[in-house]
Amino acid sequence: MNKYQDEEFFEIVEPIINNAEFKKIKNIHHHGITRYDHCMRVAYFSYKISKFLHLEYKEVTEAALLHDFFIDEVSDKNKYEQLIKHPDYALENAKKYFKLTAKQEDIIKNHMFPVTTSIPKYKESWLVDVIDDVAAIYEKTSTTKNEITTATTFLFLLFVNFIKMHL
């Protein structure tokens, strides 16, 4: 069942979520939920916002869904190495199973800027980068039951966006 209640979104993501290799991320924990749920959340909000902004929303949605498509490639890495290297592993897997555009490759590879040093080339890449940040903060705070106020979260996101815009 499509819990996001948007038929077009489901049509865009269906070929990816039905891929046997991609389904493996349903069993991997990520930010206190499954990596699959995290990718779906990032894809859904990327879809909604990119469509609203008249960007290449189908391209964005697919890339957002694939942004954390890695299985166990980082299991032997420390947390910092995982942060730095997982976009490359996700891109490698995405290219192995799906045909990607240059823009989609950029979205996947650069979704961790400024943690990674590669700067996004497209506004769609920046969009997914920010949505991934917001989703990760939401997931971490809601699953760990931390009492973070809306104002604090908003100020943090404002700060992250300010830094990203001035780098």
As for the number of domains, it is 1
- Strand percent estimate: under 5%
CATH class: Mainly Alpha
Widest beta sheet: strand line-up: 1-2
CATH architecture: Orthogonal Bundle
How much helical structure, as a percent, in the residues?
55-70%
Low-confidence stretches: none
Count of DSSP H/I helices:
8
Number of strands: 2
* Strand-pairing-aware structural class: mainly alpha
Separation, N- and C-terminal Cα atoms: 41 Å
In one word, what is the shape? globular
The radius of gyration over CA amounts to 15 Å
Order of SSEs: HHEEHHHHHH
CATH topology: Hypothetical protein af1432
Main pleated sheet: 2 strands, antiparallel
Would you tell me the overall average pLDDT? Answer: 85
